[in-house]
Amino acid sequence: MYDYDLVVIGGGSGGLACSKEAASYGKRVAVMDYVKPSPQGTQWGLGGTCVNVGCIPKKLMHHAGLVGEVMKYDAREYGWQMPENPELTHNWELMISNIQDYIKALNFGYKMTLHDASVKYHNNLATFVDAHTISCVDKKGKETQITAERFVVAVGSRPTPLDCEGGELAISSDDIFSLEKAPGKTCCIGGGYVSLECAGFLSALVMDVGIYSRSELLRGFDRECCDKLEERFLKDGVTIKKGVVPIKISKTEDARLAVSFSDGSSDVFDTVLAAIGRTADTASLALEKAGVNMLPANRGKIECVAEQTNVENIYAIGDVVYGVPELTPVAVSAGRLLSARLYDESSPQMDYERVATAVYTPLEYGCVGLSEEAATTKYANVEVYHRVFVPLEHSMVVGRNETSECFSKIVVDADTGLVAGIHYLGPNAGDIIQGWALCVKKGVTYREVIETVGVHPTCAEEIVNTTVSKSSGKDVSAAGC
Ligand SMILES: Cc1cc2nc3c(=O)[nH]c(=O)nc-3n(C[C@H](O)[C@H](O)[C@H](O)COP(=O)(O)OP(=O)(O)OC[C@H]3O[C@@H](n4cnc5c(N)ncnc54)[C@H](O)[C@@H]3O)c2cc1C
Fold first, then answer.
1. Is 240 in the same domain as 318?
2. CB 388, CB 478: distance < 8 Å
3. 406 CB within 6 A, ligand 1
């Protein structure tokens, strides 16, 4: 009766996982993926935000910054013969070219895996005609219609544009990872993780960077950790201004960008990067023709119950869904589990609670569960254990060994002893917090954490050694080995 059993709109993290899982049940499945160019004209291939303009290029550029730090601080102390007072320079064009080549290989790989999984890929922009029909427009403007028994909306989100005068002169995260020339002095607007991560790698790549945020940095994360992260930015020479928004951006005679801020201050930059949030990519989807309710006041997101919209045969996963963490593994798991459930009723539902995450700033931050503030609101009695440490690798490096920036913190519901949250600032934060995500999700107690025998000598063992309670007021600095 229909062309397909399932059509997934959006070939990003969630859409690809969902479509391949559905096809593994022998269903006739198609994916529509079409990238609308950014206002600056940037475009990319199959795979969505994560691979093209998100996690992957971001982590690679963060790593480029870490490599620079090792050369600057550590190499000589570890016996590498470095020239006296080396003036480290970085070749942005070479880095971009290598990263983009790698991404193109991934784009190609995704097409191959869809083909191998018997999922039909259409490089088309999809728009709903009714609840079982979409209009599909290809790059040349040719329109066809496709019908399906079920649809999954996995269109993700795009950077929210700046609405101040001259806002169109700003680039966004959609552009930075393929920028042909180094951005130079950069004004990062926004206090969320995208703004901070971009500011972090640009600063590590020896650029003059400022962060300008309407509110506090990393709203919703643990305040004490964010304060330490901010201190590190300041130590690296990054300007941070909170409580300001840009009110005007204009071109100067020498083709730079003059930015005036709401506090009356102004400065001139080579690049303005707007990272003030993301808006669901639903505006041109004509969801109303299919009867799907979206939430214009909530950045165009779709409200779902167990990934199902208000229309029986239309589902949504990933960043487009209201109230779920905007993370790649969340979109992937939700997509996979949804398909499994549609074609095998015994499959479980996605659990969005206690998902771990990492922020790839120069001082990395990994966490799972509640911040100290959120735990204090939720539980009657909260105890916090904390520890400051110097990673072994930094301990003989001048410029690295005298700081107290690396930090671990365990937030505990004191009445039950259950761990409410674990926070870590230091090297390899994402890798370290991953294992703790399982423990916190399964309801680990604080006693079980500290009874776990550490792996020595690592930064990860600092968590099992986090034994000083805040209420004791004792010294939190870790002793040596
Ligand atoms: C700079 C940055 C860094 C990030 N870093 C991390 C990180 O370190 N870790 C992490 O877990 N997450 C990270 N994220 C978030 C992560 O990228 C997203 O959560 C994830 O990509 C969401 O997947 P999705 O499937 O919902 O949507 P997307 O991956 O955005 O895919 C949606 C796809 O649908 C297409 N599309 C839209 N409309 C249509 C239409 N009408 N017809 C056809 N196709 C359409 C889009 O072009 C896109 O290809 C980062 C995001 C950004 C911006």
1. no
2. yes
3. no
